[in-house]
Amino acid sequence: MTLIKKYSFGIILLLLLSNVFISCEDDPTSVGITFIDPEDTTTTRVLDSQIDTMEITADNYSYYISTYTSGSFMIGNYQDYTSKSMLKFVEVSPDYDSSTIISAVLTLRYNGYFFQQDKGLTAFDIYKMTKNFNYPDVTYDSVNSSDYGNVSQGSYLGTPSDTQQINIPLSNSLASEWLEYAADTSYQFKNYGLMLLPNASSNTIKGFYSFVNTTELIPFVTIILTKNGVQDTVTLNISEQVSLTNAPLSVVPADRFALQTGIAFRNVLNFDLSKLPPNVIINNVHFTFTLDSKNSFISPGVDKRITIGAVIDSTTNTDSLFIAVSPIDSVNYIASSTTLNGIFQRWNSGSLPNLGLSMRTITESTNLDYFVFYSPTYSDAALVPRIRITYTPRQQ
Question: What counts of helices (H) and strands (E) characterise the chain?
Fold first, then answer.
């Protein structure tokens, strides 16, 4: 064989071998695929809470919040739930002291929100607040029964529907006290506001428009009076409100945890990462959890996103490093982000204590929407929270 022939043969052989190697690398055959785990290459591993029996626990708890900025305030009783509201009219004119009150009427407008009986009966009494509060800071646990009187200043019983306006006659003496106090803050009777307290006849909770709305929807008081022999009408329409709702955690079904606006119910999920090797790089954290739609109560059109964060103080459940998780369909949620990767990376490296992931509704102060999720103790493994961590071992 001549030198040229040998050289040509060598080139041809080299080209053929190169084509084989390229085909094996970029386009494996079906035979090759059966030997390659797409989630476990030569450089990555996967820790799966179900396959690797990672322990996950849920800690559901109440976290009382301020609902001052909500567009509605809640009044009523529903099973083990109770909602009362504080309402205060401010910037009352000082020009009507020494007036004779003919009538005073509180007007509220129902906003169509109910929990959970649309046709249920709404029944409440109105009492004077006897203690001064900074309304933006008020939470359920900061007010007790000694902070308001026990003499009714007005009451309501009915079934408001649509956006019905309801009118509640108030005590004339109450209106007189407000006007006198506006003219002289040293007056013995103060304007600290009202407590709208549901009574035993109430079997639903309904929402009313708060001051965070347009003028035609907000609460107002109409006072008809005479002063110096002249009849006049005074309208009080600048107000503050805050809802105070509570329920025991026993309302949450067994083997579930709940996230609820208004109260609020929150949850912490804890993950046992003892099977995750140290000194690894977290490539991806894939976290799934599932809504129990049958036991939930979510109003139409509501923002269903859930806020997840890293707990940094287990005593107060203070959290940080938040992400918002949207449902991918009617019941399933998937969380996967660089922030979540970073949380697990810090837990594994020890730079952040592993105190769990906090969970809450993103619209926590709005109403009483109730999101129930399957907990780690639920019998169907396909519905419980699941974590899948893809990681890369570091070079030793």
Answer: 4, 22
Q: What is the pLDDT of residues 3-19, one digit of tens each?
A: 343 334 443 333 333 33
Cα–Cα distance, 287 to 384 (Å, whole number): 11
Single out the residue of 237, 85, 220 nearest to residue 166, CA to CA: 220
Q: Identify whether 182 is part of a domain.
A: yes
Task: Specify whether 361 is located in the same domain as 219.
Answer: no
Whether residue 22 is contained in a domain is answered as no
* The total number of structural domains that make up the chain: 2
Residue 153, pLDDT > 60, answer yes
pLDDT score for 396: 61
**Tokens 């029964």 belong to which residue?**
145
CA–CA gap between residue 167 and residue 108 (Å, rounded)? 7
- Cis bond upstream, residue 264 (ω within 30): yes
pLDDT of the residue at 388:
98
pLDDT for 140:
97
SS3 340: helix
